[in-house]
Structures are given as structure tokens and as C-alpha cells.
Write a structure and sequence with these properties.
The chain contains ten helices and no strands. The longest helix has 35 residues, at 189-223. The protein has helices spanning 8-20, 25-31, 38-49, 65-76, 82-88, 94-107, 128-139, 145-152, 156-169, 189-223. 25% of the residues are buried.
């Protein structure tokens, strides 16, 4: 019977072992007692959120009714599978979205998750530096999208978009080319280099942690 829980280090070690193996995903999962598609989910979470995506959620995440409804309607409209929409909306598991869909299809309502302060749902104008600080509050300080949105008084959607942009195109992708703000084309090579260095410094702690965990897990596996 598959284990219900794995530590982040165990998940990463298994992903590395699978990457270095010649096995198919199904064969590897069966040999290691993993449930179907478990590796695919872990891989997607790791690619989206880094090592933090493999961590167990230790506290409830808060979602507005509007956010839940958008996810449910996307699923009902056939815009993607549960797995695809979980990644698109920044969720951690299929069960979260499945529960929202079931409730909505049953009584046509979804309610916001209970918490003390409402996460803003309206976007606001921000500076380039603010957007970098928002991204680092998620990636470096390991806060959730909802916590970050509340802290900076921006929308959940803005936070998620900026984190994705920074991951795909670096901090310079956060430049707003509208209006009087500094255009990306006006960034000097020195500006871009400094942004890249800042982003690499923010990512360094994660990289060192990943390597430390992976080495420890492989050491334990060899001993076993």
C-alpha cells in the first residue's frame, strides 16, 4: 500500500533517482510503492515552486470566493484537467480543486476560506522594486501567495503572475512597459547584470538546501 506522506527531501531524492534511471514512470512508481502519477505531480510542483513546492503544507491556505469560482468554472468549461488547473491556479493538490467543484456543482456556491483578514482581489499599481520585493517574499522568505498578497496589499493574481514572470524571464521581466515607467529596453547591461545577481542570491539558499537534503537522503539510502 502506498505511503500517504513523504518529506520534501524524500520526494526530491526520488525525483533525482528517477531522473537518473532508465525506468518508465509507471515501473518506477510501482517498484517504489508510489501511487499512480505521484512523480508527475511532484515534478510539476518542483518545477513551479522549487524545493518549497515539495514541502508539506503545515497551515491552511486562504482563497477568496472569487478565486475558487474562477478555478471551478475553468474546470467545468473544460479548460484543463485537474492536474493542469492545479498548476495554473497555484494549488497544491487535486483534492482541493475537486472539493470546490463538487460543492459548486451540488449547490452552485463556493465560500471564501475563513481567515482574519481578506486578501485583496483588486490589482493596484506597483513600482518595479515593489514587484521584486513581492517575488522575494514568496521565493526567498517562503510565504504563500495569499500571505504575500495580504502583506503587500496587492491581489493574489498579481503575486502569482510576478513570481511566474520572474521564474521564466528573471527580474527584468517584472519591468512595466506602460506609461512613464522605465522601459525594459532602457535597462542598461549593468542594470540587467545587477538584477540577475540579486535573483541568484535569492535562489542560493534554496539550491544549498536542496543539495544538502539530496546528499543526506542518498547517503541514508546507501546505508539502507
Amino acid at each position: 500500500m502506498p505511503r500517504a506522506k513523504y518529506t520534501a527531501a524524500e520526494k526530491y531524492a526520488l525525483l533525482e533517482e528517477f531522473r537518473l534511471s532508465d525506468m518508465s514512470q509507471g515501473t518506477f512508481e510501482k517498484q517504489h510503492g508510489l501511487s499512480d502519477h505521484r512523480l508527475k505531480i511532484w515534478k510539476a510542483l518542483y518545477e513551479r515552486d522549487g524545493f518549497d513546492g515539495l514541502q508539506e503544507v503545515t497551515k491552511n491556505r486562504h482563497y477568496s470566493a472569487e478565486f475558487k469560482l474562477a478555478a471551478v468554472l475553468a474546470y467545468n468549461a473544460g479548460e484543463g484537467t485537474l492536474d493542469e488547473l492545479v498548476l495554473r491556479f497555484g494549488l497544491r493538490s487535486q483534492s482541493t480543486l475537486r472539493d470546490w467543484v463538487f460543492k459548486y456543482n451540488k449547490d452552485k456556491t463556493v465560500t471564501a476560506s475563513p481567515f482574519r483578514k481578506q486578501v485583496p482581489t483588486m490589482s493596484r499599481k506597483t513600482t518595479f522594486e515593489e514587484r521584486i520585493e513581492v517575488v522575494e517574499y514568496v521565493t526567498k522568505l517562503k510565504n504563500s501567495y495569499a500571505e504575500t498578497a495580504e502583506h503587500f496589499h496587492v491581489s493574489y493574481q498579481q503575486v502569482r503572475l510576478w513570481v511566474i514572470k520572474a521564474k521564466d524571464g528573471g527580474y527584468e521581466a517584472l519591468v512595466d512597459n506602460r506609461g512613464h515607467r522605465k522601459k525594459e529596453s532602457e535597462l542598461t547591461e549593468n542594470d540587467k547584470l545587477n538584477l540577475e545577481i540579486r535573483q541568484l542570491k535569492a535562489q542560493l539558499a534554496d539550491k544549498e538546501l536542496i543539495e544538502k537534503f539530496a546528499k543526506k537522503m542518498l547517503e541514508l539510502q546507501r546505508r539502507g
